Please model this.
Amino acid sequence: MTRYVIRKLLLAIPLLLCIVTFIFVLLELSPGNIADKFFTPETPPEVRQMIVEKYHLDDPALVRYTYMMRNLALLDFGRSMDEGRPVFEIVRESLPNTLLLSFTTLAVLFPFGIAVGTIQAIRQNTAIDTGASIGTLLIYSMPQFWVAMMLQLLVGLYLSGWLEGLGDRGLLSDELVSLLTLPTLGMKDAVMYDFMDPGEQLIDRLKHLVLPGMAMGLASAASTARYMRSSMLGIIRQDFIRTARAKGLPERVVIVHHGMRNALLPIVTLVGLSLPFLFSGAVLVELVFGWPGMGRVILKAIYTQDTPLLIACFYIYTLIVVAGNLLADLAYAWVDPRIRLD
Amino acid sequence: MTVISRARDFSAPLRARLGLLLPGLGHLVLGETIVGLGLLSLDVLLLGSLFAGLPRLGGVLFSGPAGSLSWHGVLSIFSWIGLAGCLWWVAYRRAWPRVLTEIEFNSNRQIFLRTLSRHKTGMIGLFGVAFLVSMTLLTPLIAPFDPLDVDVGPQNMGPSWLHPMGTDQFGRDVFSRLLYGGRISLPIGFVAVFIAATVGTTLGATAAFLGGVVDKAIMFVVDALLALPRLVLLLTIVGLFRVPGVWGIFLIVVILGFTAWMGIARIVRGEVLSLKEQEFIQAARALGLSSQRILFRHLIPNAMAPVIVFCSLAIGSTMLAEAGLSFLGLGVPPPTSTWGVMVNDGRDPLRIAPWIAVFPGLAIMIAVLSFNLLGDGLRDATDPKLRGTG
Model:
């Protein structure tokens, strides 16, 4: 196992090198002088001189390449042109928010997708299976930003209006109405958050997570369900499942311990592979829900033509994805001992 | 002399000739519901565009600058004739089926067509794609208004007979904008995936055929690029290469293509690796054919089936990526509006005029869904293991 881990870790290094090279090539190929991309026309000449010297912008390409590699390795991304403060600071503020959103989504909706897929496989060709198949396919085909907007519309407008109506007629208590009314913007209550006690703060945070999380994760959950269904269908037709049933094990044990354990193996890799997809979606969903995360930062970097910030965002995203894939690989080796042998 | 091929004749009952009245009816009375309904939906499109387009035919044809002949209008009229021809040809074939010899009947092509036509969801996808493509081609005839004309109706008005999908905040007709938006969104998907298929096939086949260091290098790049979040990659490239105006569209298409080839390269590599050990390749080598000829004439054509399947699925995801970019205002530059741009237009007035965002989103969903269903159908029809289970 240790050797396997070390080999996987070492393989990530050329991958990162490849990506840094890719960024460098993109930067070189993009129109305009390289040095001009790192400051605005208003940058005073002495600051300009300092930046050029620090990042060796006037040097030949090969020198610039090595310095860029060094800087990226040390997570030194320079200063944001637009905000005039270190890029690292901006990233440090927004990255946790994106990670919070992504990993909550992952943690809640992946098990949900797995459960749906398993139920579909057990009840193959029933109304449940067909209905879920159509549902997952539909969700899978929807653009995430549109799902986000539709959630805002349905939940934020129609559902909350309906709940208020119920509250007015005395069918629901006011506390319950305010608890069930989900906010459609932001990460926490803009006004009241600082005046809440910790318990309320937690509830407020969770309520703000629900809609963006759903918008982001529904598509991933749908594709997980599709994979899980076919994986599970392949497993439950095999002999060892028949053996387990013949031994007289209860059906629950057969499905959960013998069936799902094996069917889950390819899904572990899928979690790693769906990380890029999740982060892509995060950019759009964060914009719609006004979530202060990396997606907002990268969009701002593009709109304000902030090259250092843009490169940093891209690099951070790839770092996380590479790390995620690495973890998925390791998890796969951990759950399936056969894989370590080759 | 022995008869090596018997004819297979599936004479259709007389009622199949109902299809000549209106394509689709013949299939419906024979119990082929999906094909029948699909053809009928295309009929609706055809007749609808006839009734909507005939009174304005002059305007459609001469809508160019200063009343000159516009090729959009001419193309739409030719498409109308072509679509009508296709529909009645299908109906005719159903009423008088072709007599197949035994060999023809068992040919790969016929088996593929038979399996696909029995694949329910695949056929839904096929007709969905056919509908969207026809709609795109017939747009100048159908669209009641110019997509860029403001104040053709009241602002933010809900769906009505005159404006089936309502109007937006500038009083533009959402239905017309949707139709014209499809003329951008769909071709972008096709062209980008075509680029991806070309690049992916070439690189994948090269990797498998040459092997060794070249293979390792190409596959390493594939793995590295697959690890990147596609939208973030697209955003970074669009952010770095700011290309103004119409060239922006070409840049978007090329970038979308160059971020989708990796999957295809992997598939082609796998296929070529297994194909190149087979006897027919040895035979080709023994005949002294050049490597180039073996690769392009013998290996790649045989590896194409899974690529076509993948392409159908990739068009869906590419359209989603393009919609995402457009939604962020970084896709196709204005005044052209794709479906993604239209959803973004509906973001501010979401609460007072939800139809502005709802309909283009539905259009994206239907398009992506159709390509996904078609891809699944094609996969099942080309996979010998799954034949007959459809």
About this structure: Chain A has a mean pLDDT of 82. The two ends of chain A are 11 Å apart (CA to CA). Chain A has two domains: 2-73, 95-304. Chain A touches chain B through 50 residues (CB under 8 Å).
